[in-house]
Specification:
349 residues, mainly alpha, globular, transmembrane helix, transmembrane, membrane
């Protein structure tokens, strides 16, 4: 007796239509050619009574569609760059978290004129502790567990400021939170099967920053250069520049081996790196008021950095797509009209 086909049973159902909506991520011609097959495959795997695609299926479909679009642009290096950018972003967040915990949050709140939040200056300590947990997860539980922890860290970063406002507790300033959110978004692409270097990098970063922070405190000999968030914008701006420079160096090294993933990662991280310097850039362009830029000046500078970063990435994609189409056109022009094979005869000039 033939078993009923789940895909046929779900045909025309709300679940099928919702799967089909997710196909927008694919190029139009690919949807027309393979759409029925893709949706049918997913419908075959779902249990009875389901009305919505699972989060895993939704992410899988959107990711596959993005890869197919980038394949058409000849920019699969961008897909390969996502795990590299995520690893670098997490290491940067771990470094910032360790520094801010040791140099700011554990300092006497009277330096900032704040009421303490337990042993910390602000409720922002919860954010930085959360990213240290994410770094530990990336080392010990790589793959989907690490990405889930990264999503939790991102949600924590977004949720703490409004919670602090509701509770009447101090929180970290925007010039720290905005780049942390941008880096947190990048960490959602942590690799499924990282090598030992990628797994150990967050903990190695934490150890190095801890050692540097202790050494710096000892060198101050009782001084208090970093005691509040207000004393950190210059250093954070330098940290953003260092992040960009290191990723660019890795990208150039990969480019020498015909691997452009590192250069794509540099483009992806250019915006978060620039956001670390938004406070200083705002003051340089618009001036300062009360020791920092006005909210409008900071918002304008931040929006400009986001637009420039998006424009650079779009320009790189457009250039790669144009070059890819040129190469494809040459290949088709050189193909034999009868058999379709490319001619190996040298072109005469």
């Amino acid at each position: 007796m033939n078993q009923p086909n789940p895909a046929q049973h779900q045909a025309g159902s709300p679940l099928e239509s919702r799967y089909r909506r997710l196909l927008w991520a694919y190029p139009g011609d690919y949807q027309a050619e393979r759409g029925d097959e893709i949706v049918g495959t997913y419908l075959d795997t779902v249990g009875p009574g389901r009305r919505w695609p699972s989060p895993h299926d939704a992410v899988d479909l959107l990711g596959a569609g993005l890869r197919e679009r980038l394949r058409g642009y000849g920019a699969l290096g961008l897909v390969a760059a996502l795990p590299l950018a995520a690893t670098a972003a997490l290491s940067a967040l771990v470094a910032v978290s360790v520094f801010l915990l040791l140099q700011v949050e554990f300092e006497d709140p009277r330096f900032a004129g704040l009421d303490p939040v337990g042993p910390f200056q602000t409720l922002g300590a919860v954010i930085w502790l959360g990213w240290l947990v994410v770094g530990l997860a990336a080392t010990t539980l790589p793959g989907s567990w690490a990405r889930t922890a990264a999503a939790g860290g991102l949600l924590l970063t977004v949720a703490v400021p409004p919670v602090a406002a509701v509770l009447g507790q101090p929180g970290p300033p925007l010039f720290v939170l905005v780049p942390a959110v941008a880096l947190g978004l990048a960490t959602l692409a942590l690799p499924s099967h990282p090598g030992w270097v990628a797994r150990g990098l967050p903990l190695l970063t934490a150890g190095c920053v801890t050692a540097a922070s202790v050494a710096f405190s000892a060198a101050e000999n009782g001084g208090n250069m970093f005691t509040t968030y207000g004393s950190t914008p210059e250093l954070l701006a330098m940290a953003g520049g260092l992040l960009f420079a290191l990723v660019l160096l890795v990208g150039l090294g990969g480019a020498l081996r015909a691997d452009d993933a590192g250069l794509w990662a540099t483009l992806l991280l250019a915006t978060p790196a620039g956001l670390f310097g938004a406070d200083q850039l705002s003051q340089g362009i618009w001036g300062s008021q009360g020791g920092g830029p006005t909210p409008m000046a900071y918002a304008t500078t931040t929006a400009s950095i986001l637009l420039v970063g998006a424009a650079l990435l779009a320009a790189a994609l457009a250039g790669q797509a144009a070059r890819h189409q040129t190469v494809r056109r040459r290949v088709l022009d050189d193909a034999c009209p009868t058999c379709g094979h490319r001619s190996t005869a040298p072109t005469r000039t």
